[in-house]
């Protein structure tokens, strides 16, 4: 699992939204510490070989899918060492320091989507222009745009993305007297997250004892915002979070949830939320592709065949990362070749098969094969079709340097004030505003 944090002068809090980019999946595991580790299994004497280091945060799936071993067999003169840092609040500041110093970087550096705009705006000269090395049409336009400067330099190649769906407990829906067919459900809430919330009101009328419709209002907020073109910044890079139509719509639908009885009022990725999966506490969750592995892990064997997947009200994205090659790399040529290979459609498909990280390269979609146990767990839902349909229609979003902490202030301060502490929506917005002003130094 990838984690990400933010720091304000008030606190260091877990930023779960940006945390879950690529690897919250079937093998959602964290490293035991925040230090580097050699995750390759090449081992042995690397004398006479070029050792390429790959700096990542959390689980990217390359080792798990056997890609490092495969590449080293194809290229006997290459040895790969992966340096893993569990948390991006440790990883990214460390990486920035080394980029600015022009030394100490890995040959390949992963960049989380919440940090890519900062990298594009302030560190572009520290990265190789990978756009000159690849066929850029391989990637989704909006994904490529996230890592490309205004003058056309591409500092990172897209790994995965987080297309959105709704995962739901069809057994709980049936007990509540609701429709359980995934196609009919998708039609019921198509085009409007408020329709998804309206179904929650119906669920609560006959909710099975001890259950709620949704895990949290923040979950709904993030999902709804994931389909908005304008979020916290406009296309010119101006901070507009307090004027953004996308933020307002997502906030309003989140408040419908937070002020009702349909939410389990759980903070995502905290232990009680994990226990909520195991105990069947909530019937639905906003579900980017990487969430499926997390559900399998936390719901356990008792959830197999009870979960299903339906298309989300709107196409949306939550998560994703990139691989960049610093200009300080001592082995630029070899690093570029490895970055290209790891992010090629064929390799992205292999990672998907291992842990459901959804590719950012559309040509891979036709041949994607999720793990058999994942398909069975989610009631044989057409997972690939649902997520690929979403991925192809996600709008290009304008991201900014402080996207991540602004979002965390809204979810972990503003929304929680309403949902868990009984504050009014106005009071929650005011609390978020104060926190965001602090983040922006205003």
TrEMBL record:
Q: Which Gene3D superfamilies match?
A: Periplasmic binding protein-like II
One Pfam family here: SBP_bac_8
Q: Which UniProt keywords apply?
A: Signal
Kindly indicate where the leader peptide sits in this chain: 1-26
Q: What organism is this sequence from?
A: Streptomyces himalayensis subsp. himalayensis
Q: Which InterPro entries match?
A: Bact_solute-bd_prot1, SBP
Segments carrying the region annotation (Disordered) are 421-442
Task: Please verify whether the record's keywords include Signal.
Answer: yes
SUPFAM superfamilies associated with the record: Periplasmic binding protein-like II (SSF53850)
Q: What is this protein called?
A: Carbohydrate ABC transporter substrate-binding protein
PROSITE patterns xrefs: PROKAR_LIPOPROTEIN
Top-rank taxon of the source lineage equals Bacteria
């Amino acid at each position: 699992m990838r984690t990400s944090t933010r720091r304000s002068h008030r606190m260091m809090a877990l930023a779960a939204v940006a945390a879950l980019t690529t690897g919250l999946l079937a093998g959602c595991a964290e490293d035991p510490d925040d230090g580097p580790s050699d995750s390759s299994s090449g081992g042995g004497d690397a004398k006479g070989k070029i050792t390429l280091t790959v700096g990542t945060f959390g689980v990217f799936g390359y080792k798990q899918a056997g890609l490092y071993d495969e590449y080293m067999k194809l290229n006997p003169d290459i040895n790969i060492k992966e340096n893993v840092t569990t948390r991006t609040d440790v990883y990214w500041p460390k990486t920035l320091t080394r980029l600015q110093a022009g030394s100490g970087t890995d040959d390949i550096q992963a960049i989380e989507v919440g940090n890519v705009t900062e990298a594009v705006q302030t560190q572009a000269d520290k990265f190789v222009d990978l756009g000159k090395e690849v066929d850029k049409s391989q990637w989704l336009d909006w994904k490529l745009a996230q890592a490309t400067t205004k003058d056309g330099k591409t500092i990172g190649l897209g790994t995965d993305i987080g297309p959105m769906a709704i995962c739901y407990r069809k057994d709980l829906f049936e007990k509540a007297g609701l429709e359980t067919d995934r196609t009919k459900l998708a039609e019921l809430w198509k085009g409007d997250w408020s329709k998804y919330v309206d179904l929650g009101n119906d669920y609560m009328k006959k909710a099975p004892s001890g259950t709620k419709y949704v895990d949290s209002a923040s979950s709904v907020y993030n999902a709804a915002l994931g389909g908005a073109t304008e979020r916290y910044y406009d296309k010119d890079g101006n901070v507009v979070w307090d004027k953004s139509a996308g933020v307002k719509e997502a906030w309003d639908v989140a408040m419908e949830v937070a002020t009702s009885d349909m939410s389990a009022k759980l903070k995502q990725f905290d232990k009680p939320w994990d226990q909520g999966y195991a105990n069947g506490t909530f019937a639905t969750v906003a579900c980017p592709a990487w969430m499926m592995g997390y559900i399998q892990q936390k719901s356990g064997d008792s959830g197999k065949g009870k979960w299903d997947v339906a298309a989300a009200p709107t196409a949306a994205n939550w998560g994703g990362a990139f691989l960049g090659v610093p200009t300080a790399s001592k082995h630029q040529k070899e690093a570029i070749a490895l970055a290209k290979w790891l992010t090629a459609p064929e390799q992205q498909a292999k990672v998907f098969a291992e842990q459901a990280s959804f590719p950012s390269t559309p040509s891979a979609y036709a041949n994607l094969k999720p793990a058999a146990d994942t398909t069975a767990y989610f009631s044989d839902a057409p997972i690939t079709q649902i997520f690929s349909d979403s991925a192809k229609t996600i709008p290009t979003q304008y991201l900014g340097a402080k996207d991540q902490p602004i979002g965390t202030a809204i979810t972990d301060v503003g929304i929680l004030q309403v949902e868990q502490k009984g504050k009014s929506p106005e009071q929650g917005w005011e609390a978020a505003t104060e926190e965001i002003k602090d983040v922006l130094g205003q």
